[in-house]
Design the sequence.
């Protein structure tokens, strides 16, 4: 029996979907433990690019069961669209995808609340993806939410109406101009709910307990990144769930002492979407090159990602709070061509040099202190073994490993499944 955990160590978009896909052949079960349909895990193989929003990234492997855990929030409309988009690939969705009854539902009015709340903030907006995820988690913690298991109840529509009416009153309170046709949105929602009913609902904590007892191997898949964790991220510019290792326990019902390996995914540089502090953001040519070569646009939202140099202070912080045992470095190929690479190894925090992440990393408090590394010119995208990599990249990897004291086991040199080098 093995329970391993895979999560992102930066502000999301690290490439988790690709690595889950690469690792899935080693596991019987892939279980998503938090987040909503803003995740946008991108997988590429056989010349086709796939974007998964809610469905775990092991769905393309015939031998794996994919579980959507209780910590996930599900929009039935987006979920139906995602299922429909997979139809042409002849996947056994009915038998290979199962859903926790305790997962919460995103209602149409949750999306409207998200838009109204963000509009009301004006220039102070958080940068929400407007998918209704935040309001859904608010209802969850406020004990108002509707869950997948409620769909099976005779009075589901009455429960829906009660909550939706409450949401409309809240939207009116915000007093902002947002246009919507709720009856039309609700028609789409209830049609999608009927499709959702065709899948298997489970008591996921019991299912996973029995799977462990039967010796099954499980990979817990996270969404977003550790620096977006609602507790340990750059609050308030965070997501609404626990994206760190603890979220796998609460989002699946797996005991912490059952987790063995913790795989941490990070980019060879750093990106961030939306608002919030970003100490190593590069506003010049280097940041533009990273964005262009790395195709740094959200796979779900299309939003351009802010780019900058690798921040080892933030990376060490994420490694510590997650108990990371192995690292995977993504997008090493994007840095090919730079004469010099900068790596943030400490902060100047209010006039004092520190090497830990402080409470506030807004630019008026924090200035990054950089160490320079020699760059490389080689095209990495066709390389298939660690020995082929240029010396400068190996030195860069060794520098990171020495700083964070965790080994880098995988180096990604392109978006395709095959462009993955095991070290």
Sequence:
């Amino acid at each position: 029996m093995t329970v391993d955990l895979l999560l992102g160590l930066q502000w999301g978009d690290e490439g988790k979907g690709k690595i889950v896909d690469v690792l899935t052949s080693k596991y019987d079960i892939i279980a998503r433990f938090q987040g909503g349909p803003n995740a946008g895990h991108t997988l590429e193989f056989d010349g086709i690019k796939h974007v998964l929003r809610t469905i775990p990234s092991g769905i393309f492997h015939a031998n794996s069961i994919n579980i959507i855990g209780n910590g996930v929030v599900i929009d039935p409309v987006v979920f139906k669209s995602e299922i429909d988009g997979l139809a042409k690939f002849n996947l056994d969705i009915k038998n290979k995808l199962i859903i926790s009854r305790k997962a919460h539902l995103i209602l149409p009015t949750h999306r409207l609340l998200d838009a109204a709340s963000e509009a009301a903030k004006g220039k102070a907006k958080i940068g929400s993806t407007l998918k209704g995820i935040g309001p859904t988690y608010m209802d969850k913690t406020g004990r108002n939410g509707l869950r997948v298991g409620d769909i099976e109840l005779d009075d589901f529509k009455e429960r829906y109406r009660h909550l939706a009416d409450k949401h409309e009153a809240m939207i009116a309170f915000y007093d902002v101009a947002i246009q919507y046709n709720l009856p039309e949105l609700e028609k789409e929602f209830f049609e999608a709910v009927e499709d959702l009913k065709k899948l298997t609902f489970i008591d996921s904590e019991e299912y996973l307990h029995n799977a462990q007892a039967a010796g099954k191997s499980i990979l817990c898949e996270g969404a977003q990144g550790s620096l977006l964790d609602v507790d340990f991220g750059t609050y308030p510019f965070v997501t609404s769930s626990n994206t760190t290792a603890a979220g796998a326990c609460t989002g699946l019902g797996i005991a912490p002492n059952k987790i063995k390996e913790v795989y941490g995914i990070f980019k060879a540089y750093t990106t961030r979407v939306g608002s919030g502090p970003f100490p190593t953001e590069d506003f010049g040519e280097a940041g533009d090159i990273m964005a262009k070569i790395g195709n740094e646009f959200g796979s779900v939202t299309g939003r351009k990602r802010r780019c900058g140099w690798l921040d080892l202070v933030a990376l060490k912080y994420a490694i510590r709070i997650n108990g990371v045992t192995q690292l995977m470095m993504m997008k090493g190929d994007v840095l090919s061509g730079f004469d010099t690479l900068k790596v943030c190894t400490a902060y100047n925090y209010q006039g004092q040099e520190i090497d830990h992440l402080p409470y506030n990393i807004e630019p008026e408090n924090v200035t990054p202190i950089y160490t320079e590394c020699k760059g490389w010119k080689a095209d990495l995208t066709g390389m298939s073994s660690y020995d082929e990599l240029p010396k400068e990249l190996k030195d860069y990897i060794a520098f990171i490993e020495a700083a964070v004291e965790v080994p880098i086991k995988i180096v990604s040199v392109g978006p395709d499944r095959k462009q993955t080098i095991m070290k």
